[in-house]
Every structure is written in structure tokens, then in C-alpha cells.
Design a protein that fits this description.
By secondary structure, this protein is of the alpha/beta class. About 45% of the residues lie in helices and about 15% in strands. Helix 4 links the parallel strand 4 and strand 5. Helix 3 packs across helix 4 and helix 5 runs antiparallel to helix 9. The structure holds D-malate. The site of D-malate (MLT) has 7 residues, from loops.
Length: about 280
């Protein structure tokens, strides 16, 4: 089954993997920019999120929330990565640069672990490598229960507060409005499935020294959920990787500081093309 996705342009391929609880809409400015610079850009909605609800929408909305949670199919990071590899097959893309943000980085780690030959280079935005501890698992389970019970509305305030830099909230209300819209458009069942998938994710720390492709790590200087220290942890373990911390940016740095993010991306992509035979 084809995942809902954007696909445009010709040239070297780059696949964008969005964060949670968002969709491919978060990459709008990068899709336009790289398409204009001669890249082939692909941005899917990951399983359960955005318009990709078909594989997780099995819940009976009349059931109690506990029962509904039991019937939510788990959307693991590995399954999401396999979906992306299948999409690349459909589009006849042997390999690509993979750019993930946060949850999208978990999926990128699974992709390079399971399909190393399909990844030319990695761009990891707001990443974290460590697995979830008991407290994180419990918190994700509570969030999953709540979203099934109440819908996505309760998440809007905490997401805007924790995920965006103060300057973004103050000066760029359009970014906050887009984030709110994406959150509210998210299917609660898909969100619960992805929360449980993130709770069940592997610890990727030991994978990092095995990553041999060019890697750019991007952190938001004011990211309240994935700190620059999380990014430095990864930088120390991937040989030759580069880290950029963007000022006045939070977790959604590609939407908050579009120009600096896009220019960084382009410089990195050019260096990858030049390094390839
Ligand atoms: C994201 O942006 O994808 C989330 O912050 C990921 C998470 O909840 O770990």
C-alpha cells in the first residue's frame, strides 16, 4: 500500500521523516527549497500520522478508553522504517539522503540499521539515541490513554510551550498556528499507536559507531525536549559527524529558522554529492 507522500523534482533523492505528532506538512519549506535546487524530494506521512491512518484506524470509538488502547495496533519505529523502504522501492529509489526530525530520527536509525545500503547520508534534527526508561514508558502510556480518551486538544498547549523557542512564539505566530493545526489534525488512534511505538523503541546508542555515512546533526539551541547535549552524545559516537546548534530555535527548528536551516541543508547536501564518486 502506498503511503501518502509528497514527491517532486529530479536529481539526488532526499527523504524527509517528520516528528510526532506531526505530518509531512512540517517540511513544506524544505520541499520547495530543495526542489528549486535540483533535488528529488520525498516526504511521507509515517504510519498512523498525517493522512496515513489506514493501517492504525481499527478502533471502535464506542469502546471504553482502556479497551480502545488494547486494540490500538502498535506502530513501531522499525515498522515505520520498513514502510519507508517499501515506498522507496515503489518509487524506484535505491538509496537516498535521509533527514529525520525527532521521532523521524528513530525511524532513520532503524532504516540505516536494517537497510544500510539505502542510506547515502543522514541528517538528524533534534535527535536522541538513548532508549526509553521506565518513567518515559509510563508517561507515553499515560499520554496514549489520554489522547484516546480526550482527543488531541489537550496536547496543543504543552507542545507550543515546550517545542517552540520563545522568539518563535513571540515573533512568528504563523509557525505556532501551523503547529497547532497539525496537532489537531492528528488521528488520536494513530498518535496512541506511535506513542507506544516510541515507548518500545530500541536504544540506538550502540548503533552509532557503526554509522559510516556522512552525518549532519542539527539541534535547536532552545529545544525543551531534545537538548543540544542529546545531539552532542550522538556527535561523539558517529565518526566525522558535524553538529550545528541553531540559535532562537526550539525542537521544530526547520519551521522556526527556515533560512539558516535550509542553507545548512544545502551546504551539507552539496558536500555529500561532491564526496560521492
Ligand atoms: C517528536 O517531535 O517527534 C517527539 O518529540 C518525539 C518524542 O516524543 O520523543
Amino acid at each position: 500500500m502506498t503511503m501518502p507522500h509528497d514527491h517532486c523534482g529530479a536529481g539526488p533523492a532526499i527523504v524527509f521523516l517528520h516528528g510526532f505528532p506531526f505530518s509531512r506538512l512540517m517540511w513544506r519549506e524544505q520541499i520547495e527549497f530543495l526542489n528549486g535546487h535540483g533535488y528529488r524530494v520525498i516526504a511521507p506521512d509515517l504510519r498512523g500520522l498525517g493522512e496515513n491512518v489506514a493501517q492504525t484506524s481499527v478502533c471502535d470509538s464506542s469502546s471504553s478508553s482502556d479497551h480502545r488502547l488494547e486494540s490500538v495496533p502498535l506502530a513501531t519505529m522499525e515498522t515505520m522504517a520498513r514502510d519507508v523502504a517499501a515506498l522507496m522501492d515503489e518509487l524506484k529509489i535505491d538509496s537516498a539522503v535521509i533527514c529525520g526530525l525527532s521521532m523521524g530520527c528513530y525511524v532513520a536509525f532503524e532504516l540505516i540499521h536494517n537497510f544500510p545500503s539505502r542510506v547515502n547520508a543522514l541528517i538528524l534534527c533534534g535527535p536522541r539515541a538513548q532508549g526509553s526508561d521506565e518513567a518515559e514508558k509510563a508517561s507515553r502510556e499515560a499520554q496514549a490513554q489520554r489522547v484516546l480518551h480526550e482527543g488531541m486538544g489537550f496536547a496543543v498547549e504543552s507542545i507550543s510551550k515546550n517545542l517552540l523557542a520563545a522568539a518563535t512564539v513571540r515573533d512568528k505566530p504563523d509557525v505556532g498556528a501551523r503547529v497547532t493545526e497539525m496537532v489537531l489534525q492528528t488521528d488520536p488512534v494513530g498518535a496512541a499507536a506511535a506513542q507506544r511505538g516510541m515507548a518500545a523503541r530500541r536504544d540506538y546508542s550502540n548503533d552509532l559507531p557503526n554509522i559510516k555515512v556522512p552525518t549532519l546533526i542539527v539541534a535547536g539551541g532552545e529545544d525543551g525536549v531534545r537538548t543540544p547535549a542529546d545531539a552532542e552524545f550522538i556527535e561523539r559516537r558517529i565518526k566525522g559527524s558535524q553538529l550545528l546548534v541553531i540559535d532562537d530555535a526550539g525542537h521544530l527548528m526547520n519551521m522556526e529558522q527556515v533560512e539558516v536551516f535550509n542553507e545548512t541543508l544545502l551546504t551539507f547536501l552539496k558536500s555529500v554529492s561532491e564526496a560521492r564518486p
